[in-house]
Amino acid sequence: MPHDFMPGLAGVPAAKSAVSDVDGERGVLEYRGIRIEDLCAQSSFLETAYLLLLGRLPSKPELTQFVIDITRHRRIKYRIVDLIKCLPEQGHPMDALQASVAALGMFYPGRNVTDQTNNYWSAVRLIAKLPTIVAAYARLRRGDEQIPPRDDLNFCENFLYMLSDTVPATILADTLDTCLVLHAEHTMNASTFTGLVTASTLADPYTVVASSIGTLKGPLHGGANEEVVAMLKEIGSPARVRPYLEEKLQRKQKIMGFGHRVYKVKDPRATILQQICERLFKKCGASPLYEVALEVERVSAELLGTKKIYPNVDFYSGIVYDRMGLDPDFFTPIFAMARVAGWLAHWFEQLRENKLFRPDQIYEGAHNRPYVPIEKR
Ligand code: ACO
User: Fold this and answer.
1) Could you tell me if the CB of 182 is within 6 A of ligand 1?
2) What is the number of the ligand 1 atom nearest to the C-alpha of 335?
3) Vertex 225: Cα angle to 204 and 306 (nearest 5)
4) In percent, how much of the chain has pLDDT > 90?
């Protein structure tokens, strides 16, 4: 055996990167060296996206130009709208998003990924258009018309407007913006790795992002936020938390929104999301799910603390989105609207020193077996 086999590539570096860093023992997350707490308090999603993509904070004119570039590319072609209309309304929005992003690549081929200007505009289009696609599917699946973007609204105001046909209260748009900052990047996670594998074949960026969206959908990754809310609703009240968790753990089932491959303490994003919850509830009224969530965290610390399993980013994000009135199956597409910035930052990095991903395997099958003709089997 040439190398040690590491299931799930746990602890195996897949790339060198300067995009973000996690200290899982201390619970520290930095984007381009800046702590997530500082970005959430002082930055915006689009400024954070610029930081991730270009490696530094923009000057005022650079940020203004980037916001203009994004704003000008929010519209989607009517044929993409037609495509979304044809998708089954009972399907998952992540599948609609993946199919639409793959189709976008047919309108903007961008085959030459060595052209950096072309790559910049592909990144702008993807960051700009994902919210329009998500909002379009949300409306079209319930029989409403798609609402085109409004250039006088900022990134999050516009997304919430395209969903509901109403300009949202500032607290809602600001809350969503902070959530997008929090979800924009997270080192070598499963969806980022997927994107890098696809990028390493020199596939176009729409294909790269479509493959990452597919990976983010799974319940062990971004899909956990939707399941957390379902779990909290099923538990129903703080008094029912302990028997629910004890039974689940006895059956060797996972508690959704808990545990992380890298963090051995509470995920710093979960701490920030808790503060976001409290700020939102002060202005808009509390959510009954929050009391249940706090009790889940308390009892889990007793039951799972020795294994260093604590809340991750998905534990409190669903509660925020639920309180904002968003449908649970749209929580992960909103995650994708943010994470696309991180995926593209890693895509830029990969292209700078590309090497095709082609790992090895440990073959455990047979050799030299005879071929038995079908009539003799
Ligand atoms: N609930 C209960 N037990 C858990 C949990 C959990 N959520 N997570 C891990 N454990 C236990 C496992 O049962 C295992 O115990 P054992 O050693 O006694 O068998 C031990 O902790 C190690 O667990 P693994 O699954 O091997 O750890 P891994 O690093 O592979 O898992 C993962 C990380 C997938 C995130 C896991 O914690 C999990 O499934 N959590 C629930 C799903 C979830 O919240 N996913 C979102 C992650 S954040 C994100 O992707 C954005």
Assistant:
1) no
2) 51
3) 115
4) 94
Q: Where are the domains of the chain?
A: 44-169+184-219+340-352
**Which residue's alpha carbon is nearest to atom 30 within ligand 1?**
261
Give 117's pLDDT tier (boundaries 50, 70, 90).
very high
| Mean pLDDT value across the chain | 96
Q: Which are the catalytic amino acids?
A: 260, 314
Topology of domain 44-169+184-219+340-352, CATH: Citrate Synthase; domain 1 (1.10.580)
Q: What stretches of 231-352 adopt beta strand conformation (E)?
A: none
Tokens 């949300």 belong to residue: 138
Would the pLDDT of 1 be above 80? no
- Examine the pLDDT at 116 and tell me if it is beyond 70: yes
pLDDT above 90 for 4? no
Q: How far is the CA of 36 from the centre of ligand 1 (A)?
A: 23
- The angle, 0 to 180 degrees and rounded to 10, between the axes of the packed helices 224-235 and 288-304 is 100
The CB of 224 under 6 Å from ligand 1? The reply is yes
Question: 220 CB less than 6 Å from ligand 1?
Answer: yes
